[in-house]
Specification:
The protein has 408 residues and is an alpha/beta fold. 25% of the residues lie in helices and 25% in strands.
């Protein structure tokens, strides 16, 4: 391949751990690009090429740096498997996968599973490199095994603190340092008793999740307990929320507009269905917008974007949604039209209301566009003197529809 860039994975065992094919590639390269730690693992006599360290920030510098050495043989160093949370993805997205020749090395996750005796195919992996620590919360379930890629020496202590603060202090943490190298080491304690403020920067955390007694149980499907949210009463209640998410039908990678966010529950649970799901919540109250952010962090989806302002004006310039939920403000002039126009063909719109005025709007749209118009009624058992009776919540009218046409 003319102009191909070699991407070579290397482990903590350095040059000695590389296969002969990778050694030949590095030895023949005129330009060697990598982090200082990676470049220091290469012997000078075997790898005489010019050594260049990545600048910071890295991603914007990639095209220019590679262009500056066009016509020369380039090898880029990566930790472990370049295509697993590594430089391989960045290079493929910036210069094109067809220009790459990737030479993988066993990843840190492969090494960790080998040391722990965990099956790789059923072990969930989460990276905290350049990602919010709060994202870990969404992956916590009793008995679950997690491998966490740390960002630096302080990550294990930060993870332990988060686990203690959120009711997972009994979780066993094992930190596997310098996997595959001569300085490999294992640290082992519970989150509640974690003694190490700093560890080796090159590490993987293994978590055996244990929920502390009294900690609220959060399932993996929509319909979390109402107590999971901080709210002022503006909350789509649990059973209506579950039915609403079922109508919205989130799929991996899709984007939701959650309009009239209230406490953010629809956007939060949309994003919890898959780590690649995205959501933008629009809320006109600054106080509620701040509360949505706190709920998103507490429930493990810190990437939820909150836009503070009234709809439809606040919708201007937002990226095209795959689905729209309207939980408030239906009578705002132009809101329904703006949401319908923003949806691409095949996009979904779901709107809930408890008022007769908004219900009339939904009935009109149902006549014009079809879809499904339903009424959700939930009753809870409550004491009635010495007996038990039903207390009916306000019924919710829901319109759900898919915009006609085929996606581009």
């Amino acid at each position: 391949m003319n102009g191909a860039i070699a991407v070579v994975g290397i482990g903590a065992d350095g040059w000695d751990g590389l296969p002969e094919t990778s050694r030949r590639v590095l030895g023949a390269a005129e330009v060697l690009i990598g982090a200082p730690r990676q470049l220091d693992l290469l012997p000078g006599e075997a790898c005489p090429g010019e050594r260049i360290t990545w600048p910071s920030p890295l991603r914007p510098a990639v095209p220019g740096l590679l262009a500056a050495h066009q016509g020369r043989t380039i090898a880029v160093l990566a930790s472990g498997d370049p295509s697993f949370y590594g430089i391989g993805r960045t290079l493929a997205e910036t210069v094109g996968a067809d220009r790459l020749r990737v030479h993988p090395h066993p990843s840190s996750v492969s090494y960790a599973c080998a040391r722990l005796g965990w099956p790789l195919e059923s072990t969930e992996t989460l990276s905290l490199v350049a990602r919010p620590l709060a994202a870990l919360s969404a992956a916590l379930h009793p008995g679950r095994r997690l491998l966490v890629l740390g960002e630096g020496p302080g990550t294990p202590a930060q993870v332990a603190a988060l686990l203690r603060d959120t009711g997972w202090g009994g979780t066993r943490i094992r930190v596997l340092e310098q996997l595959g190298g001569e300085h490999e080491r294992l640290l082992d304690a519970t989150a509640a008793d974690w003694p190490h403020e700093r560890t080796d920067a090159l590490h993987v955390l293994a978590l055996d999740c244990v929920r502390d007694p009294g900690t609220l149980r959060l399932g993996a499907v929509p319909g979390l307990p109402d107590e999971a949210y901080e709210h002022d009463g503006q909350l789509t209640k649990r059973y209506v929320r579950a039915a609403t998410l079922a109508a919205l039908a989130p799929a991996p990678g899709e984007l939701l507009w959650d309009i009239g966010g209230g406490s953010g529950s629809i956007g939060v649970e949309w994003m919890r269905t898959h780590r690649s799901c995205r959501a933008i919540t629009v809320e006109k109250s600054p106080e509620r917008a701040a509360r949505i952010g706190r709920n998103a962090d507490a429930l493990g989806v810190p990437g939820l974007r909150v836009v503070t302002g009234p709809a439809p004006a606040a919708l201007t310039g937002l990226p095209t949604p795959d689905a729209v939920f309207i939980g408030g403000g239906l009578t705002a002039p132009g809101l329904l039209d703006a949401c319908w126009d923003a949806l691409p063909a095949g996009g979904r719109l779901v709107a809930n209301t408890v008022t007769l005025e908004s219900e009339a709007l939904l009935a009109d749209r149902y006549r014009r566009h079809g879809g499904e118009l339903i009424r959700l009624a939930v009753a809870s058992a409550v004491p009635v003197g010495g007996f038990t009776g039903w207390r009916q919540a306000m019924p919710v009218t829901q319109w759900s529809v898919t915009k006609p046409g085929e996606r581009a």
